[in-house]
Amino acid sequence: MTYSGLFRAWATVLAAILAAILLSTVAFTTGAGAQEQPPCSGKVVLDPGHGGDDSGAVNKTYDLQEKDQTLNVANKLRDLLVADGCTVYMTRITDEPLTNTQRANIANSFQANDPGDYVLVSIHMNGSTSPSADYTTTLFGKWRKDKELAYAVFGDNVNPPKINPPTYGLRTLSAVDGTGTISTRTPYSFASGVLLKSNMPAIIAETVFITNVEEGRRLSEVTEARQQEIAEALRSGIERHFATH
Ligand SMILES: [Zn+2]
Q1: Which residues have a Cβ under 8 Å from the Cβ of 118 and sit 6 or more positions away?
Q2: How far is ligand 1, taken at its centre, from the CA of residue 204, in Å?
Q3: CA 195 – ligand 1 centroid, Å
Q4: Which of 181, 188, 189, 235 is nearest to 208 (CA)?
Q5: pLDDT tens for residues 67-125?
Q6: Rounded to the nearest whole angstrom, what is the distance from the C-alpha of residue 84 to the centroid of ligand 1?
Q7: What are the residues whose beta carbons fall under 8 Å from the beta carbon of 242, sequence distance 6 or more?
Q8: Cα 111 to ligand 1 centroid, rounded to whole Å
């Protein structure tokens, strides 16, 4: 092999090494890019609605009580949020009655003991005497404190542009009658002690109607797929809030 031949051989090897380094750098960057979505750094207080003597709304056909369903969804949501890096507290983890003031006080004490960027999400299911009624909505207490969170969890911007089709939040829930996404009611203000007495952005999520015939059927499935879907919709709305604040 001549000197120039040797050089060419080494040049080829060097080029291959360089290419390998470059490729691994690109791959590494791409990998890092895929993980660039910041892990959830916020703190979330989940408040499963009702409990104890207070069953909340019921679906007699499927023997469902709102207090159990809200705790079920809250447990699933807690796992999802923790996996994403959020710190999660819960106002109740058992079937116990709490007043609205107690719920707000518990949330405030979490924040006092472990300061940070908090939200409070009170999880509910709606009820109606009409078995066909079904829509999703969120309720806020104080406009300045709560309204943006209410819209984030609902799945829309407070101001235009409005988001269509929905990409996050409760609006992404499938309609149980198979017609796209669930019906909606625009977030509205509601003077609940949970919302008014808490020091952090706080909302009530009226996720679905437990009294709806088809919701009842799906909520009673052993797979708990509907509860999981509700938890995932809430997660995307909560994380949207943290990502934009
Ligand atoms: Zn309720």
Answers
A1: 42, 43, 44, 45, 107, 110, 111, 200, 201
A2: 9
A3: 14
A4: 181
A5: 999 999 999 999 999 999 999 999 999 999 999 999 999 999 999 999 999 999 999 99
A6: 27
A7: 40, 41, 42, 86, 117, 119
A8: 24
pLDDT digits (tens, 9 = 90+) for 213-232: 999 999 999 999 999 999 99
User: By C-alpha distance, which of 230, 218, 183 is closest to 59?
Assistant: 218
Distance 166 CA to ligand 1 centre (A): 24
Listed in sequence order, the residues at least 6 apart from 36 whose beta carbon sits closer than 8 Å to its beta carbon are none
pTM: 0.85
Both tokens of 164, joined, read 């269509």
Tokens of 77: 């949501």
> Hey, what amino acid is at 106?
I
The CA 122 to ligand 1 mean position distance, Å, reads 9
**Listed residue (119, 79, 156) closest to 238, CA to CA:** 119
